[in-house]
Amino acid sequence: MSGNDAMLNNYLVVGALLFALGAVGFLTRRNLIVMFLCAELMLQGVSTTLVGFSGYHGTWGGQVTAIFSLALAAAEAGVALALFVVLFKRGYSLDVSIWQDLREEDQPPVEAETAAEDTPQPAEKIWPQLTPSGRLPGWKPASTPESAEPVAVASGVEGGPTHG
Amino acid sequence: MDSSLLDLFPPILGASLLQNPQVLFALRVLGVLLPAFLGIYLMLPRGGRDSHVVRLFGGALVTLSFVLLVTFPLSSSEGAVDGSQGTALWGLDNTLECYTFHALAFVSVACAVMMITSRNPVYSAIWFAMVLLSNSGLYLLQQAEFLAAATIIVYAGAIVVTFLFVIMLAQPNGAARYDRFSREGLLSAVTGLLLSGVLIAAIHLVSRTEGRAPVADAAARPAGSVVAIQAAANPTSLLPDGKNPNAAHVAGLGKSLFRDHVVSVEITGLLLLAAVVGAMLIAGHRIEESHVRK
Q1: What is the per-residue pLDDT across B46-92, written as a single tens digit (0 to 9) for each?
Q2: Does residue B180 carry a pLDDT above 70?
Q3: Which residues constitute the domain of residue B154?
Q4: Which of A74, A85, A161, B37 might form a disulfide with B193, Cβ 3.0–4.6 angstroms?
Q5: Which of chain B's residues have a Cβ under 8 Å away from the Cβ of A49?
Q6: Beta carbons within 10 angstroms of residue B145's beta carbon
Q7: How close does chain B come to A160, measured CA to CA in Å?
Q8: Which residue(s) pair with A59 in the sheet?
């Protein structure tokens, strides 16, 4: 086996590894942008393979095909990013799992979430509140003063500082 | 049916399956790749259960697998099928080209692993840029200067646009649920292991059984080969001779592109135009409030 042959094998192995890694990322990630990058990684693996064949055969054919795949990747990127804009406008999320009802209707839903809900979502914003200092206009006294107290507090929280 | 093809695909039910050197070779490749994909599985985001220690361990496994892949003689102990030495299998001779190749290949594959396992999409884009840079170095090693430059130029724009989208749409630091959880990580890692293992084993087995001649050298080119016929038909399709330092590289690529592949160039231009029009058509109109799903 000559050195040229071994170098071709090395390029093919690197291309195969990049392709497989891109496939793993595409299968397992849920962010649309990361999935798009993984598809580009698979294209990079194919380009590496083509360039290795070009150098091995001593012709321009592999490089020309790699240039065409570059143009193809650019076209794909344009359409994919436009799709991301539309999907984000409709769903306010980059998660692919919220679009799983695009499949046929009788398919069972994919449970993408694991059972662990351990990590907290970003907490709701707490706005400053004024202490209710009187009763609301139009508030009627309840029958008993024990029950009137929570009602007044609750309505004060709901109404916020409007009557303060 | 060719007999070498029969050697490549032995009968499954044969008792001598595990004595078959090619099956053994494929199993060795899978064994060498196993730590890498185990490490990738450990590095994938898995909600709140992942820690830095586990990620570092996974990275160490991936590095170990790469070192094994480069240094481990994958041929069987009795010698390879064609009698070559085990270390020559991966071209580990003491040339600068070889060391440069292995360094660039390691950077490329390691950055690809980091890209598919990072929680933050911004970091994914940065690691992908590193993959592109090292791939451009690999292209330079194979006399593909224009392709190296074009990759950096085209993908630099793509990466910047991806940054823009990440800043506009995504949430930083893996704050979103869909960045902290991966879907079916174990099955995906097994898929990647089988895919890359079968590909690598097939690459080496085919190159061993066929006994390819070096076709890049014009003198040693076999007379009836595809490359020889192509060289006789249109000489613009040939790379310039490596021994001539004054040979025009990019001009030769342009000649090949616009003489041999001119229809493909036109069709690619049409494709790009269609993609631009389609992107405007898809993203250009407003979404009514009733179509927004929560």
Answers
A1: 776 667 888 889 899 998 988 888 876 655 443 344 434 444 445 55
A2: yes
A3: 121-172
A4: B37
A5: none
A6: 15
A7: 27
A8: B238
CB contact under 8 A, B176 and A122: no
Write down which residue in B211, B229, B260 finishes a domain: B211
Indicate the residue type of B251.
Answer: A
CA-based nearest distance A102→chain B, Å? 13
Three-class secondary structure assignment of B47-65: HHHCCHHHHHHHHHHHHHH
pLDDT tens digits, one per residue of B231-290: 677 666 677 665 555 666 788 888 888 888 899 999 999 999 999 999 999 888 776 666
Residue B193 lies in a domain: yes
pLDDT for res B87: 41
Within 10 A of B38 (CB to CB), how many other CB atoms are there?
19
**Same domain? B57 vs B31:** yes
Contacts of B51 in chain A (CB under 8 A): none
Q: Residues B114-137: what's their mean pLDDT?
A: 91
> A14 is written with which tokens?
């690197």
More confident residue, A46 or B12: A46
Say if residue B3 is in the same domain as residue B78: yes
- Chain A positions touching B46 (Cβ under 8 A) are 114
Q: Which chain B residue has its CA at the smallest distance from A119's CA?
A: B48
- pLDDT in the model for residue B172: 59
pLDDT of residue A154 exceeding 50: no
A33:B124 CB<8 A: yes
Q: Give the other-Cβ count within 10 Å of A23's Cβ.
A: 21
Q: Do A60 and B44 make contact, defined as CB atoms within 8 angstroms?
A: no
- Is residue B226 situated within a structural domain? no
Contacts of B230 (CB under 8 A, 6+ apart): A59, A61, B237, B238
